Structure formats: C-alpha cells, structure tokens
C-alpha cells in the first residue's frame, strides 16, 4: 500500500461515488439534498449529483480537499417496475442459477469443474421440463382430457361445452381437444423466450471497459467450454505494476475478466435449448396419447406417423441435452459470438415438430374416447428421479473440488451448490403440485380430486399427492431445529449481555451524565439481543443443509411410494395395514399447504403490483438473487449486475481519465459487492487511482462463504493488493455485513476497521443527551469513522494527469476512441 500523498500533491479533484444497497435508495437521501440532477444514465440506473455540484470538477472555486458526492442508483433494475413482481413465479429458476456459482475453487481439476457446470445446467433443464409439464397438466390433462371427456364434469361449464364428449361435436375427439389446449403451454414457452431475450437486451448487453474494443465479428481462437480460472495456470496475487494483458499468464480473478459480465453467447445458447425443450414437452403431451391409440388401431399409416414423431421428439431432446452439456461460459475474453445453428435452428426445428404433432393429433379418429389420466404420468416420476440423481452427482463433484480447495469457511463444507439446487427442485415441485391440485379441485366441484372416491375426475398424477403428503412431515421435522435456534439465540444474548456492559462501561467511564455510568438491564438486553440475532446469519448454512437433506430423503420416498403402489398415500397405507386416517390427513393437509403456498405467491405478486412499498420489499430478494449472470437457466430473472457493473466501471474509468482526479467508490451492503466487482473490471492504470470503502458489506460473510470460487480469500486478497486503498466498516449488530478478514503480512486484518459500537453510546451523555438507536445494518455514514476513513483513503491516492482538458470535453464527448488504459474518450456518461 502506498503512503499518504502530501498536501502539495493533492491538487486534482476528488470524487466519492456512492452505491446503495438492498431495497434501493433515492438520490436525495444518498446525497442529503432534495435538489439533485441526473448527470448520466437513464430511468433504470443513473448517476446523480447535487444540483450545485453538477460541474464541480471544472469549477476552480470548489474546495479540492472535499470530495464531490455522486450517487449511483440502480434500484429500478430490480424493484422499479410493478410488473417485475411476477418474477416471483420464476423463483426456482433463479435458485438453480445460484447453484452454478457456488462451486468450490480448486486448482488442477478442470474436468471436475466442467462436470459441475454441466450437472447444474442439466438440473436447470429439468426444471424447465417440469414447469412445462405442469402447464401441460393443468391445460391438457385436467380440463381437455379428463373434464371434457367426463359429462358429469363438463356439464354446466359453458367454456368447455364445445369440447365435451357428451356433445359429440367436431372438437369432441380427444386428439383435437389436446391440440387446441396445447396452444396455452406453447404460448407460455414463447412468452418465457420473449422475456429472456428482451431482458437480456435491457440488462445484460452492456460492455465493460475491458472488452469495449472487441468487435462483434471477433471470433477468437479459444473454443474451450467452461473456461474457469482452473483451466489456466494459477498464480499469486500480482502487484499493480504487472500488466493485465501479459501473455500466457492468467492474472485476473474471475470477476475481473473481460467476458464475465457479458454472457451473450451462453445465454442465447441456453435460451434456444430450453425453448426447444419446452416445445418438445408439449409435443410429447399431444402426440403421445394419439400414438398410443394408433398402435392399437387399424390405420398403419397413423401408427407409422406416431412412431416417427415420437422418435423425432426423443432424438431432438437428446440433441438439446448435448447442446446444453457441450459448452459453458467463456470469460477469459470478450465473446460476442453466437452459435447460430443452435440459437436459430434448434427452437425453429422444435416448433416445426410441435406443429406436425398438432396436425397429427387433429386427424380424425372415430370412436376414440379419453379415460383416466393422460398417458405419460410416469414422466413426472422420471423428472423427479432424474433431479435427485443429478443433485447427488453434483454433491459428489462439489465434494471432490472442496477436498482439493479446502476453504475452511465455505458454506456446508463446499456443498452449498448441491443444497441450493435441491431447494430449487423442491420449489419447482411445490409450485407444480400446488397449481395442479388447485385446478383439479376447481374442476371437481365440492369433491377433492385425487383425495377421495367421490370426484368426477381422477385428478392430478399420483406422485403429486405423495409429494403433498410429505410437506407436513417436513414441517414437523423442522420444529426441533427451529426450537434449538431460538434457545441458542436466547443463551447467546445472555452471554453477550456481560460483554456489552463491560465494553460500554470501560468506554464511557467518566463521560456519562449526572450520576455516572450505570447498567440498565433493559438496554443491555436489547443490545445483546440485537447481536445474538445478527449471529443467526452464520447459522443459515446449517438450516439450508438440513432442509435440503430432508427434502432429498422425503422426495425419494415419495417417488418410491408412488411407483410401487400406484395409489394415493391414504389408499396405499391402508392396504399395508398402517393407519389410513393419518396418511389421509397428511395427504389432505399437505395438498392444501401446497395450494396455500402457491396462492401466497400469486397474492404477494398481486399486492406488489399495486403497492410500491411491497414491490420494494420483493426487490430485496432479487437484489441478492439476481446479482449473478444467467449461467445455468436462461429463464431466470435477469442479472442486474451485467448492467450495473459496466456502468460503474465506465464511470470510474472515464472520470479519472478526463480529470486525473482521485476517486473513492463507497458501497453499502449489496452496493459494496457491486463496487468490488466494478473495481475488478477496471484497467490497471485506473485501479491505481481508485480506493474502495465498504460498510455493512456481505463480501466475506455471505458471498465469500457461499461463492468461494469468486469471493474467497485469494480473490479478496488480490483485490486489496490492486486498489490504492480499501477499508471496511462493520458492526456486531449487523445481520448482513461483517469483516472481510483479509490479513496482511503480519497476520493482522489489513482492511477491516475496528468494530463500530452500536449504539454509539449506552446511555445519555453530555454529547448524546437523548437515547441513541441500535442501527444494525443502516446509517453507517453517520458514524464519525466513515468520514475519517474516507479522508484517509483520498490522502493515499496520487492524482493523475488528465487525458483531455475540461474545455475540450464537449467537443470530444461523442468520440469513441479508446486509450491505452482501456477507457473511452467519452465524457463519462454511463453506457446504456
């Protein structure tokens, strides 16, 4: 770390770039002034200043010892539009995408690393297949096949009258009913494709400065899949004097590579494959029952056509799997290519095959009647079985990587990715079962489809009833660990109470008001309780692991029970001599719990559509979950960081290049993760004029533990060595932020400030005559240590030489040339 700059050398302007955290913030609050002006950006994400500071760096009268405050507001990327509340329905896809980034970082194991990525992408594909199959279940099976084929169910439902078998109309044949109903799930697949393509253009098409000079036609020469840091020789963290582009040496961490925040090629490839898979599922649901009927029919031509279509569906699905497994992310260079054969031909071929299946199902088949459930119920069992097998294989790959990596603080000993993948599958199953059971109950009238013998239709697949019955069992199993956590928190608060009184008593001795310092049991309990509750964050991995393990075991039991008995749990346990009433009650209660959970999702999204405060609360979930690029599932909510990180990197690069000034990027909470990611993306020359100030930061406490390959100790140490200065503020009462634990050569913490007291004083003092609140995760800037650390960071930075004088800024603001530092010759406006 460089020494402080003498006052005589601190002549350039200084800028403090503020980045807010989860939940969003308004520029007026961040800058402490109601009069603000947007200096760069758009309605989604923008840079703001106080009106009086709009051109402060060009004003000689502006005091150079004071930094110009500037706020980057990105909350509209996640919680600004009310329609984004519907992203809740994409939650399983988002969780599966997170599993991709949770692998351990191990040197010398490229094949295992690639295998990990392939397995996660296959799990993500199984979720698309599951959700499309669920859409087919509630459109093709329940209404078109079961209800329309049962006069007692279709009677009184005018919207099903023209499809009812009782009317004997042209549409009453099962194949035609299925072909017509198939338009709904096919339309859902088209909608997901459209949203994925549209959100990529809006969020993830921003080029970082390190890749700005690469043209669309640059195809490069590296065709390796899953180009991770383990596929190249590892090296110790380099000094700032080492060039980023030194040939043959992989010096940059993953988050600092040119292609990390530009995943166009992989997202397009995955989007095409998942779209094709969705079309194929719908095609199989339509053509399968017709082909099964034709195998026992008199028409040889229809029999051959059915077998041909089923074979084509199977072969094309195998090709989809190969496309997904073939290639992972390409990060070591800015990859603007597109795999046009896969991207264009694959969805089109699947759509054409779906059209042929619809035409085949429309063919006249006199005397064909629908009975029971739609053929192909076994597909749900196969999907769940495949998800379990893939998750176990993923756990084996993660375990092998963790044995080599040996990250001592990794969540669940490196098995965080498999655990989260299992949760994604469980969420998909809950949503699938919930909507299928509710639609079946709605169609069955007063009876409960699948749960009694009085219904007019058989109801959803048996497996969904088994999955419903294990939900109460899972909730009961969680009561014991939740009670243990509550007891542990209470005992921890009692233990912290003694520490609180000793800490504040020693610090405030002689400074208290009249009567001196005296302990207050209520005040002590509140402070100690806040610290104990903040510590619960560190127990989250254990709870996630417990839920995932129980889900895997209970899910395997559900598949085994459904496959062995072919009956709902109440009937199956009754035949075995066990208590039928208990099994029936669990099945009934679980069914309603699943339905309640799905209804809760819908009502929460509906409330967020109308209520801005609720929409902001939901946005907090996406602030954390959608930070990572879509590397496993293309239909996951879009990655806002692929817009925000290039914005911040461009702003820092162009401002320091134009002014030669000093810059501190100041990030709170999730904003500190964005700030660190943007600093990693900066050209080497720019990083030497940038300092990093983080507070309430989850960089190590959450990201370092759950994503060790990207925020592990090696990456954070390298970040500390590359920037001119880095300081981190944290509190014991903060449930999100914590120390980053980067050590210097002597073994001391090189980045973390001493823990801040919260509250700043225990009782009333002459300086604080009113009770001070417990701030927890908020208001770090109010602590005197914030201004002190910011001043110290600015003092360490040597001003540079501006690339162009201020008077030439307007004349050259639209020129697009790039200098040797990798920055642009623009005026500093953010991309996009």
Automatic annotation (TrEMBL):
Residue spans of biased composition, Gly residues class: 814-832
SUPFAM superfamilies given in the database record: alpha/beta-Hydrolases (SSF53474)
Disordered as annotated region, ranges: 203-250, 791-832
Coiled-coil spans in chain: none
Keywords: Membrane, Transmembrane, Transmembrane helix
Full protein name: Integral membrane protein
Compositionally biased intervals (Acidic residues): 219-232
Residue ranges of the TM segments: 85-103, 115-136, 178-195, 272-291, 311-329, 341-363, 378-401, 413-436, 466-487, 543-565, 585-605
């Amino acid at each position: 770390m460089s020494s402080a700059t003498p006052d005589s050398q601190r002549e350039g302007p200084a800028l403090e770039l503020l980045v807010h955290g989860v939940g969003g913030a308004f520029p007026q609050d961040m800058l402490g002034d109601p009069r603000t002006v947007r200096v760069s950006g758009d309605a989604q994400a923008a840079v703001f200043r106080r009106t009086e500071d709009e051109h402060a760096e060009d004003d000689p009268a502006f005091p150079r010892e004071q930094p110009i405050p500037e706020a980057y507001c990105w909350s509209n990327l996640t919680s600004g539009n009310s329609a984004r509340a519907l992203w809740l329905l994409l939650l399983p896809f988002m969780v599966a995408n997170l599993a991709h980034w949770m692998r351990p970082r191990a040197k010398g194991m490229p094949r295992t690393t690639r295998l990990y990525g392939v397995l996660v992408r296959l799990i993500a594909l199984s979720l698309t297949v599951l959700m499309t199959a669920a859409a087919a279940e509630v459109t093709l099976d329940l209404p078109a096949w079961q209800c329309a084929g049962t006069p007692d169910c279709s009677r009184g439902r005018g919207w099903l009258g023209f499809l009812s078998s009782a009317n004997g109309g042209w549409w009453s044949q099962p194949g035609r009913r299925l072909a017509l109903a198939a338009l709904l799930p096919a339309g859902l697949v088209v909608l997901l494709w459209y949203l994925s393509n549209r959100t990529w253009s809006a969020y993830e098409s921003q080029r970082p400065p390190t890749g700005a000079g690469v043209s669309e036609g640059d195809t490069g020469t590296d065709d390796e899949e899953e180009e991770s840091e383990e596929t190249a020789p590892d090296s110790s963290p380099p000094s700032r004097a080492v060039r980023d582009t030194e040939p043959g040496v992989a010096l940059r961490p993953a988050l600092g590579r040119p292609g990390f925040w530009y995943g166009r090629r992989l997202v397009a490839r995955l989007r095409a494959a998942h779209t094709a898979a969705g079309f194929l599922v719908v095609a199989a649901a339509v053509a399968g029952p017709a082909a099964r009927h034709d195998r026992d029919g008199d028409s040889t031509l229809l029999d051959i056509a059915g077998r041909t279509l089923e074979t084509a569906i199977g072969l094309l699905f195998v090709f989809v799997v190969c496309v997904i497994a073939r290639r992972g992310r390409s990060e070591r260079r800015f990859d603007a290519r597109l795999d046009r054969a896969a991207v264009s031909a694959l969805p089109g071929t699947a759509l054409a095959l779906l059209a042929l299946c619809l035409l085949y199902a429309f063919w006249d088949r006199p005397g064909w009647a629908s009975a029971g459930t739609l053929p192909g119920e076994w597909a749900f069992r196969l999907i769940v079985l495949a998800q379990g097998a893939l998750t176990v294989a993923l756990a084996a790959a993660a375990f092998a990587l963790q044995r080599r990596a040996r990250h001592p603080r990794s969540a669940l000993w490196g098995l965080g990715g498999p655990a989260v993948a299992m949760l994604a599958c469980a969420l998909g199953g809950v949503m699938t079962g919930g909507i299928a059971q509710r639609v079946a109950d709605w169609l069955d009238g007063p009876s409960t489809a699948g749960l009694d013998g009085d219904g007019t239709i058989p109801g959803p697949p048996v497996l969904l009833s088994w999955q419903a019955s294990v939900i109460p069992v899972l909730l009961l199993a969680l009561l014991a660990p939740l009670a243990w956590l509550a007891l542990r928190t209470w005992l921890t608060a009692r233990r912290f109470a003694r520490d609180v009184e000793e800490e504040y008593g020693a610090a405030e001795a002689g400074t208290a008001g009249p009567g001196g310092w005296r302990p207050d049991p209520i005040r002590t309990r509140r402070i100690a309780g806040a610290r104990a509750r903040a510590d619960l964050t560190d127990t989250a991995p254990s709870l996630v692991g417990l839920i995932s393990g129980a889900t895997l075991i209970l899910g395997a039991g559900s598949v085994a029970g459904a496959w062995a008995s072919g009956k709902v749990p109440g009937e199956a346990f009754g035949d075995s001599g066990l208590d039928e009433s208990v099994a029936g009650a669990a099945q009934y209660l679980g069914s309603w719990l699943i339905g309640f959970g799905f209804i809760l999702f819908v009502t929460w999204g509906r409330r967020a559509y109308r209520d801005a405060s609720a929409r902001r609360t939901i946005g907090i979930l996406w602030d954390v979950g959608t930070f990572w690029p879509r590397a496993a599932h293309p239909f996951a909510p879009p990655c806002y960081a692929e817009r925000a990180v290039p914005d911040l990197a461009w702003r820092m690069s162009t401002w320091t290049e134009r002014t030669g000034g000093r810059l501190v990027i100041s990030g709170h909470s999730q904003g500190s993760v964005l700030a660190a990611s943007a600093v990693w993306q900066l050209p080497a020359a720019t990083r030497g004029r940038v300092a990093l100030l983080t507070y309430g930061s989850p960089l190590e406490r959450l990201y370092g533990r759950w994503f060790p390959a990207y925020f592990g100790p090696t990456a954070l140490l390298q970040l500390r060595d590359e920037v001119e200065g880095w300081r981190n503020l944290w509190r014991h009462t903060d449930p999100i932020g914590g120390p980053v634990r980067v050590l210097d050569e002597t073994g001391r913490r090189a980045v973390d400030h001493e823990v801040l007291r919260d509250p700043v004083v225990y009782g009333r003092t002459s300086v604080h005559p009113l009770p001070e609140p417990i701030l927890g995760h908020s208001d770090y800037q109010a602590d005197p240590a914030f201004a002190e650390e910011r001043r110290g960071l600015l003092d360490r930075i040597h001003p540079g030489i501006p690339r162009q004088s201020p008077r030439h800024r307007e004349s050259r603001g639209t020129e697009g040339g790039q200098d040797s530092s990798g920055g642009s010759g623009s005026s500093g406006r953010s991309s996009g």
